[in-house]
Amino acid sequence: MNYDLKEIFECFAADGTYLSGEPYGSGHIHDTFLVETRESDKDNYILQRLNNKIFKNIPALQQNIERVTIHLRNKLSAVPGSDIKRECLILIPAHDGKSWIIDKDGNFWRMYIFISRHRSYNIVDSPDKAFEGGKAIGRFQAMLADMPGEPLNETIPRFHDIENRLDILERTIKANPVGRVASVSEEITQYLSRGEEMKTILKLGRAGKIPLRITHNDTKFNNILLDENDKALCVIDLDTVMPGYVHYDFGDAIRTVTNTAAEDEKELSKVRMDISLFKAYARGYLSETGKTLNQVEKEYLAFAPKLITYTIGIRFLTDFIDGDNYFKIHHEFHNLQRTRAQLKLVMSMEEQYGEMQKIISDLV
Ligand code: ADP
Ligand code: GN1
Ligand code: MG
């Protein structure tokens, strides 16, 4: 699809003149473009066509992001030497004052300042980077802990609720809309056999042992930008910031930080969890949150990566059976490849679970 990026850019009250616009990044949800401006002393921008099949209420989504980014900006302004434009996302309002526009074809768009001189990684290759990732997410949760006002809108209902994800998988298997079920019977068996154990966090929440906090809910490592020295810079992709358990953020970060291969690695022997990266991330994370988390939250941190890797695996499997309607894919079996790689990673975590528990208990 070709969009008139210049015309869309000009709907926003940006500083600078449109020079060029190109697809950018490797997100699975929105269509993201980098817009460069003509003037070398003006910001560049990230323009996004929002996926409104997935996010059904864009005004509610944008309201969350406005609140969160303003709160973060206020916090950072009080820190001497902070670089606001790079340490927190800044939305550019449209000329009507709203933080999004609808184009003539009914597409929703929003625009952020492009965070300059950042580094973004899909695979993490050193404990130092993992540690910085942990600090970034820990600090993010800590800064949002005192955000005033009503709870945030639930932009995707029951997003990490594993009972919900298992229900959707079972319904999709029954419907078998594109006839793929028979081809994935082994994967279905493997995933379903772990279902009961994965309800642990939900049960702790229901029993009042772990609180709902403001969490990010999509902490894969490419949503954490590092600076030119590979130090934590900014947490991006705020679409799913809403009430959640800290385990969701810890788990998703570990899923991506510790994987020795890509999320969609075809060669499964390359996929495993690197425990040294687990340890480094946990150290960074607990250095920022150790004082706020309760005992039960801490105790179950080691369990969280299995849960979230499993949950994302279930979602890839469901999307494959459903005919690839949710995640962007680049080839026919992409979601299946992702499903298998996540399962392999769950197994690697299961093998190293004892060590993970020991690392956490030594740290807390
Ligand atoms: P998706 O939900 O599709 O993953 P994201 O909001 O994460 O969308 O954006 C996709 C990619 O665009 C990110 O992974 C990152 O590389 C890049 N990106 C997004 N916002 C910014 C920003 N403000 N500055 C620099 N890069 C950004
Ligand atoms: C999506 O938006 P992105 O690409 O950062 C997805 C996450 C998955 C992830 C898997 C809103 O994240 O939940 O964990 O893909 N985001 C949404 O890579 O569904
Ligand atoms: Mg993203």
Descriptive report:
It is a single chain. With 364 residues, this protein is of the alpha+beta class. It has two domains: 5-113, 2-Layer Sandwich (Phosphorylase Kinase, domain 1), CATH 3.30.200.20; 127-363, Alpha-Beta Complex (Aminoglycoside 3'-phosphotransferase, Chain: A, domain 2), CATH 3.90.1200.10. Helix content is 43%, strand content 11%. The protein contains 13 helices and nine strands. The protein has helices at 5-9, 58-77, 84-87, 127-144, 162-175, 185-192, 200-206, 246-257, 275-289, 295-299, 304-322, 334-351, 353-363, and strands spanning 18-23, 31-37, 45-49, 101-102, 108-113, 213-215, 224-226, 232-235, 242-244. It has a five-stranded antiparallel sheet with strand order 1-2-3-5-4. A two-stranded antiparallel ribbon has the order 6-9. The longest helix has 20 residues, at 58-77. It is globular. The model has no long low-confidence stretch (mean pLDDT 97). The chain binds adenosine-5'-diphosphate, 2-acetamido-2-deoxy-1-O-phosphono-alpha-D-glucopyranose and magnesium ion.
